[in-house]
Amino acid sequence: MARWKKGQSGNPAGRSKGTPDRRTKLRDLIDPHAEILIQTIVTAALAGDMQAARILMDRACPSLKAVSEPAPLQIDLSGSPTEQSQAILKAVSEGILPIDEAVQLLAGVASGMKILEISLLEQRLEALEQEIGGRI
To answer: What is the rounded CA–CA span in Å between residue 136 and residue 100?
Structure first.
Protein backbone atom coordinates (compact mmCIF):
# COMPACT_ATOMS: atom_id res chain seq x y z
CA MET A 1 0.00 0.00 0.00
CA ALA A 2 1.30 3.47 -0.91
CA ARG A 3 2.33 5.80 1.88
CA TRP A 4 1.08 8.88 0.04
CA LYS A 5 -2.23 9.56 -1.57
CA LYS A 6 -2.30 10.59 -5.20
CA GLY A 7 -1.63 14.30 -5.46
CA GLN A 8 -0.17 14.48 -1.95
CA SER A 9 3.43 15.70 -1.71
CA GLY A 10 6.01 13.48 -0.09
CA ASN A 11 7.72 16.64 1.10
CA PRO A 12 5.06 19.23 1.96
CA ALA A 13 7.67 21.65 3.36
CA GLY A 14 9.74 21.44 0.15
CA ARG A 15 10.38 24.11 -2.45
CA SER A 16 7.20 25.80 -3.60
CA LYS A 17 6.18 25.87 -7.27
CA GLY A 18 7.70 28.63 -9.32
CA THR A 19 10.76 29.03 -7.08
CA PRO A 20 13.78 29.32 -9.40
CA ASP A 21 16.70 26.99 -8.84
CA ARG A 22 20.32 28.15 -8.43
CA ARG A 23 21.10 27.86 -12.14
CA THR A 24 18.18 30.07 -13.09
CA LYS A 25 19.23 32.67 -10.52
CA LEU A 26 22.79 32.62 -11.85
CA ARG A 27 21.61 33.00 -15.45
CA ASP A 28 19.42 35.92 -14.41
CA LEU A 29 22.46 37.60 -12.81
CA ILE A 30 24.69 37.02 -15.84
CA ASP A 31 22.16 37.83 -18.58
CA PRO A 32 22.34 41.67 -18.38
CA HIS A 33 26.14 41.47 -18.67
CA ALA A 34 26.37 38.67 -21.25
CA GLU A 35 27.51 40.89 -24.13
CA ILE A 36 30.28 42.50 -22.07
CA LEU A 37 31.40 39.13 -20.70
CA ILE A 38 31.57 37.58 -24.16
CA GLN A 39 33.50 40.55 -25.52
CA THR A 40 35.94 40.27 -22.59
CA ILE A 41 36.53 36.58 -23.35
CA VAL A 42 37.00 37.34 -27.07
CA THR A 43 39.49 40.10 -26.26
CA ALA A 44 41.41 37.80 -23.91
CA ALA A 45 41.48 35.04 -26.54
CA LEU A 46 42.77 37.46 -29.19
CA ALA A 47 45.48 38.56 -26.76
CA GLY A 48 46.69 34.97 -26.47
CA ASP A 49 44.75 33.63 -23.48
CA MET A 50 44.42 30.00 -24.49
CA GLN A 51 41.85 29.19 -21.81
CA ALA A 52 39.59 31.96 -23.13
CA ALA A 53 40.16 30.72 -26.68
CA ARG A 54 39.22 27.19 -25.61
CA ILE A 55 36.00 28.43 -23.98
CA LEU A 56 35.01 30.17 -27.20
CA MET A 57 35.94 27.23 -29.40
CA ASP A 58 34.10 24.74 -27.19
CA ARG A 59 30.94 26.83 -27.49
CA ALA A 60 31.25 27.81 -31.14
CA CYS A 61 32.61 24.53 -32.55
CA PRO A 62 31.65 21.50 -30.43
CA SER A 63 33.77 18.39 -30.83
CA LEU A 64 32.94 16.31 -33.86
CA LYS A 65 31.65 12.80 -33.37
CA ALA A 66 33.16 9.96 -35.31
CA VAL A 67 31.07 8.82 -38.25
CA SER A 68 31.72 5.44 -39.85
CA GLU A 69 31.24 4.91 -43.54
CA PRO A 70 29.45 1.71 -44.53
CA ALA A 71 31.97 -0.80 -45.86
CA PRO A 72 31.68 -4.36 -47.08
CA LEU A 73 32.64 -6.88 -44.42
CA GLN A 74 35.73 -8.86 -45.38
CA ILE A 75 35.17 -11.71 -42.95
CA ASP A 76 32.75 -14.62 -42.86
CA LEU A 77 30.35 -14.36 -39.94
CA SER A 78 28.47 -17.60 -40.53
CA GLY A 79 28.24 -20.19 -37.81
CA SER A 80 27.53 -20.04 -34.12
CA PRO A 81 27.96 -16.86 -32.07
CA THR A 82 31.18 -18.33 -30.66
CA GLU A 83 32.50 -18.90 -34.18
CA GLN A 84 31.42 -15.40 -35.20
CA SER A 85 33.26 -13.89 -32.23
CA GLN A 86 36.38 -15.91 -33.00
CA ALA A 87 36.27 -14.77 -36.65
CA ILE A 88 35.99 -11.12 -35.55
CA LEU A 89 38.93 -11.43 -33.14
CA LYS A 90 41.02 -13.25 -35.76
CA ALA A 91 40.30 -10.48 -38.28
CA VAL A 92 41.50 -7.89 -35.76
CA SER A 93 44.69 -9.85 -35.05
CA GLU A 94 45.39 -10.12 -38.79
CA GLY A 95 44.81 -6.40 -39.35
CA ILE A 96 41.76 -6.98 -41.55
CA LEU A 97 39.32 -5.29 -39.18
CA PRO A 98 39.86 -2.13 -37.09
CA ILE A 99 39.31 -2.54 -33.34
CA ASP A 100 36.44 -0.01 -33.18
CA GLU A 101 34.52 -1.94 -35.83
CA ALA A 102 35.28 -5.22 -34.06
CA VAL A 103 33.88 -3.82 -30.81
CA GLN A 104 30.66 -2.88 -32.60
CA LEU A 105 30.40 -6.29 -34.26
CA LEU A 106 31.02 -8.12 -30.99
CA ALA A 107 28.35 -5.98 -29.32
CA GLY A 108 25.99 -6.96 -32.13
CA VAL A 109 26.73 -10.65 -31.64
CA ALA A 110 26.16 -10.27 -27.88
CA SER A 111 22.87 -8.44 -28.46
CA GLY A 112 21.75 -11.16 -30.84
CA MET A 113 22.54 -13.77 -28.20
CA LYS A 114 20.52 -11.89 -25.58
CA ILE A 115 17.56 -11.70 -27.94
CA LEU A 116 17.85 -15.42 -28.71
CA GLU A 117 18.15 -16.27 -25.02
CA ILE A 118 15.04 -14.25 -24.13
CA SER A 119 13.13 -15.84 -27.00
CA LEU A 120 14.07 -19.36 -25.88
CA LEU A 121 13.19 -18.61 -22.26
CA GLU A 122 9.84 -17.22 -23.38
CA GLN A 123 9.12 -20.40 -25.37
CA ARG A 124 10.07 -22.61 -22.42
CA LEU A 125 7.94 -20.55 -20.04
CA GLU A 126 4.93 -20.73 -22.34
CA ALA A 127 5.35 -24.51 -22.63
CA LEU A 128 5.56 -24.86 -18.84
CA GLU A 129 2.50 -22.64 -18.34
CA GLN A 130 0.52 -24.74 -20.80
CA GLU A 131 1.62 -27.94 -19.08
CA ILE A 132 0.87 -26.66 -15.58
CA GLY A 133 -2.24 -24.78 -16.63
CA GLY A 134 -4.10 -28.01 -17.35
CA ARG A 135 -3.48 -29.27 -13.81
CA ILE A 136 -4.46 -26.20 -11.81
So the answer is: 53
